[in-house]
UniProtKB/TrEMBL annotation:
Keyword Oxidoreductase among UniProt keywords: no
Protein name as catalogued: Similar to putative cytochrome P450
Superkingdom in the source lineage: Eukaryota
Keyword field contains Iron: yes
Amino acid sequence: MLLFLSCLILFPFLTYYISTLLFYRQVNSKASRKTPPTIPYLFAGIFHAFSLAYEGPQKYFATLLKEYGTSAPFVVRAGLQTFVVLRDPGHIEKVMQASKQGVPDAIDLHKYGEVFGSPRSVLDLYAGRGASTSTKQALRHAHVDLPRKYLTGTALANMTDVYATSLSRSLNDKMFQFKFWTQIEDFWSFFQQVITRCTIEAFFGSAILKEHRKLLKDYWAYDEAVAGFMPGMSRLLMTATYEAPRDRMLEGLEKWLKNHHSGSEFARISEEDPAWDEDKGSKFLQERDDVLAKLEGFNVRARAAEMLSIMHSLNTSVVPPSFWSLIEILRDDSLTKRLTPEIAKFHASNSGEYDVTGLTRLPFLQAIQKETQRLHVANCLVRTLDSDCELDVNWQLPKGASAVAFSHDLAMNTPVWTSAVPQSVQQALTQFWPGRFLVPDRTALARQSQQRRHESGRFTMQGLEQIFALFESDQDAALLGEELAHAFRAATLAVFLTEFELQLCEVEVVQGEELPPVPQLAFGRLGFHEKMAVRIRKRAV
């Protein structure tokens, strides 16, 4: 009995020792086309499942990147589930090219089912099971063609006008004054409520907010819970529950669809029809729902789940990045003083309209948005390979492997940035510096001092395309496209900075000071600091 207990105690340590030897032997092997090694573990069969379940994927993968990052690619296992962690931009690009497609793949379908509540009948159609050629074409039309039709060019400009008008009206209705400051103690909560209301109104119309009074509250409870969701990973390893707020939203969306999107001819999408309807929403939403409603298997619950996916994509793409762009601008007086008059040029004071299309072409604003995306956005890419994938001469992934990569890991990887564009790391990657994405022209060089040489000029992503491919690969952002996200973020900053004056209240978050430390997470929310106070007043014309 004593011998049995001794073996039981020693066995995990022996397993860990042997798995450690095997791991580093594979890492240091000179062989070509190796399969990535599994990081050390205590229990064969279970592997890393206990740690994933205890810490959650966000924290556990962050720990692994810190401990084994120099040995990537490496394998993490949770029972039968296998994830290969990638850190090399070239490896990530190979995987993305191997799994590129227009409609959701197997990993995305896992998210559609778990996070958005799509029924099995719809998941089967997306997977191609029992789907006719016309059904597959209709799904591609909804996911690829309609975003191009409505969320780019003139159609996008019209939708952005609706959003900017709604945001301006909402903020001006708050009774802010011209001379006296109003202090908002928790600016993040205020910001997310205001922006979410306006984004939903721009896409879904105003009726849905009146009919579902708790929609905003339910959405942000849901969003907080799904922030730690990792596509492809077992639900048992997740630490938060999101079913209750999700199901309440789905019920509300079903009622809204029955009230305003019922019948065979509910969509008003002819040229004579308005671009936006307060009851039915935008033309994009109407036509997309019309296409899906005509497909067998897309019942009202399935359509509600599609609506939730759009709502989530919209808000995750717009709200957090806009918030952090505004905060970073307010932290630096020179940014505020420089950007505000430039943005004002795109605002017609008589009509109150904004030229957001022109605004999005402003090089300095483009650089601010990219730097915000780099520093404050943390996506998780998961792709399952349909065939073997050769990463380089040393490493190869087998068919069926699930590759994982994290955008924030790349964002803070100094050697990668130094290799891609050496001048991009003239200031540390831990700092907010839009100059990473600006190439100074001769005029700028003559006008600026040596210290501020890279604060103006031409916006460029040259040399950084491979790194940023991961930032824009997230299914949430891809659903609606980057052009819409850029336009709505620019409109958000334009309304706040043109029509209002804002100041940060806390001394510790002003220029020259680092933001309060945030939890070490591989993906998800990178620390929205509660009680971040901001004072605001109307800007005198």
